[in-house]
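Troubleshooting log. The previous run stalled partway through. Resubmitting the same two chains, unchanged.
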Amino acid sequence: AQSVTQPDIHITVSEGASLELRCNYSYGATPYLFWYVQSPGQGLQLLLKYFSGDTLVQGIKGFEAEFKRSQSSFNLRKPSVHWSDAAEYFCAVGAGGTSYGKLTFGQGTILTVHP
Amino acid sequence: DTGVSQNPRHKITKRGQNVTFRCDPISEHNRLYWYRQTLGQGPEFLTYFQNEAQLEKSRLLSDRFSAERPKGSFSTLEIQRTEQGDSAMYLCASSGTAISNQPQHFGDGTRLSIL
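Second attempt completed without errors. Output:
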């Protein structure tokens, strides 16, 4: 069964600083990987996805993520954080085949941005 | 594209009562998922529909839970004889099926509180 680990429960950065959120996954085949962002009381918004091909994927809001098969990682990065980026971030792996793409999520990382 | 719509946004009920939530997916999407999210956790998969057929149910979905998608459009999730442990955010997501693992688009969820 697939699983996702987000080692950092809470990260605090200053506005304008760079950001990296870690994600490690466990999946027996080629993974489909996603990053979602959730603001308090809201649903999840898709930031970016990796299906195949180029291992560096670009997303919305200036985010990018790099798939590293050898490390089973899919870390999210942003070169300069804005105060509006404060939210909770979830990494997820999608199951193909007979599991019809259901997602397994990590525990989430809460991002706090200091002015 | 009006997005995934969920109603109600909040539901407060007494233990032992029945509750029903509704999800209206993006109109051209034929895959519909339900997830449950408790405080401090990532969403957990509950069940999945392709058109009107319920193709997978998580073992998290006890006999008190039932989901339907009668005409392959909107879906309902009913919880009978609610318990304290049912308090959570219930999220609905939809996706297309052009390829496996199309990104899922989430609604804003229904927050259930059991008194």
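Takeaways: The first strand of chain B starts at residue 5 and ends at 7. Chain B touches chain A through 30 residues (CB under 8 Å).
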